[in-house]
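Need residues for this backbone.
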């Protein structure tokens, strides 16, 4: 497409005034606030979301080849999003046998008495995937080379439960013990994936009640901590749906149970809509559906519930964090032509801004690679618009979240978020505004005012689709985003190419214009008070 393409406003621009106030931060984010996932299905060659529309037990009917973790482009692109935590999870995480042998477990378990739960049960269902030592070693090399920390979801599925439905530790503890023995650091172990969805995946008889999960979680935590005391313990990775919330709820009960004293983070999943690759939907994916402020704000309501449950958990002697361990533009691998295009980008930047401001400690994007919603195309290894947006968020939006200020004007279709700036434009007085214009036909004219001295500007970075809204390429200040934006970021050549000023004392207008369906990073500095 033409690199100089800009959407044409079909009507007079909407006018807004944003008054920037105090620099007092609302909260501080960890450096790995934006984190990532690779699905167990893709890692192990399971039923990952491909082109097929066949569907069974919550996953695709199509089986894929295992992911090549040694692919040089995958490692290179992943490293540019560090620091981050990488979650290995997904539906098929509850179907995995860990083929690690028993020697490490016998050695590290030591004199601890064997639990009545340890052992085999002949009536347990068979595992469907196997994690072998070679794959585990390659995964840990990939983690190290990328600069990530590892969050691994251990199976809590039917194959790891006895005839009474209680979880048994033998399978999972082999992996934990082997990892400790070999020096493979796992930052956090997660107990199960969307256990609240088991009755829908495996039938009503496989339902795990909130009370049962809480008992299992306590046993799981004690078993892991005996072998790997430094790792964090998290769960329950509940699926929370738009409109209806958490079916077969577990989180509330877990947070008030005795098991909560072991709970380092509550994990949950949220997809704002469902693609046409799955049969069940409460909000089907559409081109403009996630431009609705109401739909964008839906996640705030469910997060507010999580925060309320966490207050109960924090009555125990632990500080439980809030981790959204799966999220993407649409469930079931994403919607073709939408989740892999710029359509997803405005939603993604907005969700990051919303959750940063509302108490979420980590947001795990499903996924780094693969399906429609992956940041990288699985076949070409090329970045999609959401990859570039994630990269720019990491570079430009700092870890201190600031008050947004006050707004004059009808602002439902103008969304904005304010942080200190990221590493590229460092300085204690440097700030970043992320503005998003959700209007389909109308430009946003924004005037920035401050009550104190005038400020100098570092740069403005405008993001748009390279062509129509469903384009799979993105413009950065009118220039198509390419590899050099990522791998040569900060060099004079790249800053010039993408029209990004690097002069900290450059005085420019405080009036900004956002075309329809665009996002803009606005970075500036003010004199220290």
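Answer:
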């Amino acid at each position: 497409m033409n690199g100089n393409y800009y959407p044409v406003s079909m009507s007079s621009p909407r006018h807004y005034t944003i008054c920037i106030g105090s620099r007092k931060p609302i909260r501080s984010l960890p450096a790995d606030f934006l984190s990532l996932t690779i699905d167990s299905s893709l890692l192990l060659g399971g039923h990952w979301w491909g082109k097929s529309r066949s569907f069974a037990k919550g996953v695709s009917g199509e089986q894929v080849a295992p992911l090549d973790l040694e692919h040089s482009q995958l490692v290179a692109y992943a490293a540019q999003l560090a620091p981050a935590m990488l979650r290995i999870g997904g539906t098929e995480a509850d179907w995995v046998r860990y083929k690690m042998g028993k020697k490490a477990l016998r050695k590290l378990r030591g004199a601890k008495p064997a639990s009545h739960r340890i052992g085999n049960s002949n009536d347990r269902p068979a595992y469907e995937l196997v994690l072998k030592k070679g794959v585990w070693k390659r995964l840990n090399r990939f983690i190290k080379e990328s600069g990530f920390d590892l969050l691994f979801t251990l199976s809590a599925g039917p194959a790891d439960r006895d005839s009474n439905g209680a979880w048994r530790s033998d399978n999972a503890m082999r992996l934990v013990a082997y990892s400790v023995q070999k020096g493979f650091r796992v930052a956090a172990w997660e107990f199960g994936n969307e256990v609240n969805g088991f009755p829908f995946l495996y039938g009503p008889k496989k339902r795990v009640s909130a009370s049962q999960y809480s008992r299992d979680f306590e046993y799981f935590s004690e078993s892991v901590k005996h072998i790997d005391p430094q790792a964090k313990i998290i769960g329950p990775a509940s699926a929370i749906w738009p409109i209806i919330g958490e079916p077969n709820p577990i989180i509330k009960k877990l947070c008030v149970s005795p098991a909560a004293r072991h709970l380092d983070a509550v994990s949950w999943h949220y997809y704002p809509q469902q693609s046409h690759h799955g049969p069940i939907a409460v909000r089907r994916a559409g081109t403009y559906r996630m431009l609705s402020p109401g739909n964008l704000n839906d996640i705030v309501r469910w997060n507010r519930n999580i925060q309320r449950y966490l207050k109960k958990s924090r009555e125990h002697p632990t500080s439980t964090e809030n981790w959204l361990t799966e999220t993407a533009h649409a469930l079931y691998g994403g919607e073709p032509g939408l989740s892999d295009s710029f359509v997803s980008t405005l939603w993604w930047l907005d969700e990051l801004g919303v959750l940063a401001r509302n108490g979420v400690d980590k947001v795990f994007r499903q996924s780094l690679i693969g399906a429609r919603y992956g940041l990288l195309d699985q076949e070409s290894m090329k970045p999609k618009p959401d990859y570039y947006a994630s990269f720019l968020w990491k570079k430009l939006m700092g870890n201190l979240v600031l008050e947004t200020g006050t707004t004059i004007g009808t602002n439902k279709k103008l969304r904005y978020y304010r942080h200190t700036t990221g590493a590229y434009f460092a300085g204690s007085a440097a700030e970043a505004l992320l503005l998003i214009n959700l209007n389909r036909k109308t430009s946003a004219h924004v005037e920035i005012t401050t009550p104190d001295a005038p400020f100098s500007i570092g740069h403005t970075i405008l993001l748009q689709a390279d062509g129509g809204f469903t384009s799979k390429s993105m413009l950065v200040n009118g220039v198509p985003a390419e590899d050099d934006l990522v791998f040569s970021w900060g060099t004079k050549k790249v800053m010039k190419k993408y029209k990004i000023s690097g002069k900290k004392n450059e005085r420019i207008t405080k009036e900004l214009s956002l075309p329809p369906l665009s996002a803009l990073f606005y970075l500036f500095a003010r004199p220290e008070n």
